[in-house]
Model the fold of this input.
Amino acid sequence: MDGQGASSEGQRVAAELQHRLAQAAPGRLADAVRLITGHAFEILSILRPSPAELEAVVQFLTEVGYATDARRQEWVLLADVFGLSDGVISDAAPLSPGVTPATLAGPFYRDDAPHCALGENLCRNGQGTPLQVRGQITDVAGQPVPDARVEVWHANAQGRYENQDPDNQPEHNLRGRMLADQAGRFHFRTIRPGGYALPDDGPVGQLARRLGLSLKRPAHIHFAVTAPGYRRLVTAIFDGSDPAIGCDALFAVKPGLIGNFRPEDGLLTLDVALTLDRDNPHATPTIG
Done:
């Protein structure tokens, strides 16, 4: 790439493309394509890639497609690793001050986790360091949200989720759903999760390695909270003592989401405070 600026032919093609796109029906799809292609031609004018370099980009995108199947979503991983997924979630709609930040649900969420009673143990194979989790759900005014549905899922001590490790973990291990009490409180037992690294055996992981990007994810527990009149919250609480807390590959660690896994009465304990936002009746426009 010689970076010597755009050719007159490149400028002509860019201008002609923008003219053609201007004829498209108004809408977010047309706006998005105009912006994306406009920036793409700007990149071409700066970097001046060779035909071989363009072919390499196309080949990389082709390999991302080949690596995607029913059990693995390499396109989602690509959006995750470059912060696009977190950026969209974080900016999807304005939140009231004090609301718990949202994070990605991740590829290992299941919507069929079993119902559990408060205090039940989510660890179904007895392997790992016991952990008790206590939480409360409130609104931005600090008032409890009663009877909220709380979904929980996390990796085992080796950083493996049950549905990616079916030969070594029982069905629904380390996941469940429960109802908070009238004071918005919930509690359960589980084991301390371990951190892990994103896969580097595919094109996205290999690209990240070449760029020197971290693939590490600090240990965390996912929560999804649903209550009438409130926006659904999907978030995670991260282990503040994990060495990867400052370099999460998916950019999900935010102030307010760092937990303290501390010993209490001979048992490891995590206290969680989750704050919900009132439901927003104004839907976010979609591209289409």
